[in-house]
Amino acid sequence: MGERAGRQAMDYTRADFPADFRFGVATSSYQIEGARFGGCGPSHWDTFAATPGNTARGEDGATACDHYHRWAEDLDLVGRAGFDCYRFSISWARVLPEGAGQANAEGLDFYDRLVDGMLERGLKPFATLYHWDLPAALADLGGWRNRDIAHWFADYAELVGRRLGDRLAATVPVNEPWCVAWLSHFLGEHAPGLRDIRATARAMHHVLLAHGRAISAMRALGMRNLGLITNFEYAAPADESAEARAAARLYDAIYNRWFIEGVFKKSYPQEVLAGLAPHMPDGYEDDFDTIATPVDWVGINYYTRKLIAPDGTGQFPALKEVEGSLPKTLMDWEIHPEGLSFFIRRVNREYAKGLPIYVTENGMASPDRLVDGSVADPDRIEFLNRHLAEARRTIDDGVPLKGYFIWSLLDNYEWALGYEKRFGLVHVDFDTLARTPKASWHALRAALTAG
Length: 451
Ligand code: FCB
Known about the structure:
Bound molecules: beta-D-fucopyranose
Structural class: alpha/beta
Distance between the termini: 30 Å
Strand content: 15-25%
Number of strands: 11
Shape: globular
């Protein structure tokens, strides 16, 4: 990778960023906690993974990194590296095993201890309420296809807000609406594994309705710093043809514009409605006032670009991904740091218009191995350097970028791809569950604690 491959240090220290710029790491509940512990209810990820063929080697999050028991050690790793913030998620199924009704006291106590543990270590808690572990009982009722999910979710948000809201530095209802809706209901790659356009259209809308209802519920409790996090992929045409350019624009509209335009412009992109309109819930336009409930900041999750071409079928969305020529991560994702600054600028210019922006996820998977007690991951250090360089440029241009979170603290359960895709700054041995900080963790620690 790159001419600087092999470097062991970060190009930046904290002093190269504004004094109020925050550095953090991110994780999510199902990917690290261990869903079999502590009275957590079944989620649709448990049932999806229990169905043959859905996940690599049939792997699931039953044990994951056993963060449920090792959380104190994990928070120490965040604090010792010099991070300011920790982005984590709360499992709906752990808090409400049936999705609604009776709360699991053990689950709420767990998050209570976890948040206090962050504060004790000087870490600002950035909470996500939904990072994909939908209670199976609600999946039985149609999950994101059912409009009622908006009030189930608002009730859950209120419960969490009452218990933790006084100590959270920032809260976001949903991680990556595109994955919740399109990836899971159209492409069928994530739970519930559907490939159905009507289910997709409903999920695309209900996920935003649920977001808006949750924001209102938390605002009513007096909670502050409520945000929206969407994921973005830089969509480039596979060639110069008008057809490829149109396909890339449609990909961009589905992936990068639908959700944020719903929230900031009270509309959906026309080219997407051209395919989804017949399948949308009746009267969906009446929900835009709720969807557009004001937020205080916007989070950008960014990993890669995609080359897009027409697929020749003529059937919406009639596009396909084409293999690109840039160096790739273990996910087979092209490394394209310029896309990060493109989206930070676009979000500021078109949508957030001066609201604080955070990069809430960025990072890479690599085949990291423990050799003689240490893990060399020069590609990750290089990846982070190149993306931080792009982030820096947007700050120089005057964009109010306020922080950058790395995905992820630990090697963890990478959803349908199982445990082999290692994104962590800290290596996890999935037999012993031992944690070993990688070279990237040490490099970041040097950069963040310098001076
Ligand atoms: C994001 C997810 C996160 C992780 C990374 C690699 O889309 O939010 O859980 O899987 O990708």
